[in-house]
Structures are given as structure tokens and as C-alpha cells.
Amino acid sequence: MTDGFLTTHVLDTARGVPAAGMRVELFRLEGEGRTLVRSVQTNSDGRTDEPLVPKGELERGRYELLFSVGEYFGGSGTSDEPPFLDTVPIRFGISEPDSHYHVPLLASPYSYSTYRGS
Length: 118
Description:
Layout: E1 5-7, E2 10-12, E3 17-18, E4 23-30, E5 33-41, E6 61-68, H1 69-75, E7 87-94, E8 100-102, E9 105-107, E10 112-114
Parallel strand pairs: 1-8, 2-9
Antiparallel strand pairs: 2-3, 4-5, 4-6, 6-7, 9-10
């Protein structure tokens, strides 16, 4: 068993606040297929209440996070219809399952960025 785990958080860079209530889905990628691991909504701090993959359950492999950016900004009245950005996918690999992987998203209706955080 590993000690690694996976977390995320989302910041609304258009308003300078945490992105509360954004839907986030985590998939494990296997070949051309994918399996849903978890579907959550961010809390008032733009984070999830629990890790996306709890401590001790992280496995080496490829993953995808889907952030419902268009839905989030559409609900706040700060996006076009149809939205410029809708679902933002981030594909990443876990090579050290004993580590903490943190994959944040900084988003506006028209741009986004990410990095491996701590």
C-alpha cells in the first residue's frame, strides 16, 4: 500500500475568489478507455472536502480531471452562451504513488492554467 494521495482546488481568477460549487470528475485512463474514479463539487474554499484519491489508494498510471468551467461561469452570469471554455480536461501521470499530487486549476471564462502543486 502507498502513502500517496491526490488533491485539487479551483480558483476563479476572473473574480479573484475560490471557485465554489464547480463539478470535478476524476477518471483513470487505461488504453483508449477510462473509468470514473470520483465525481465531486468544490466547497466554499474551492477545494474538495476529501482527497480525490485518499491516502494509501493512489496508483501509478494515467489520469484525467474534468473541470466543469462553462457550467460554473454560466451559473455566475460571467460567461457567454455557448461558453468559450466548457469542460476543461487535464491529463496527467502518476509516477510516484507514494507522493502527494496536487493538481490545481486557475480559471476564467476565457483562460486557464494548472501546475503540479504541493
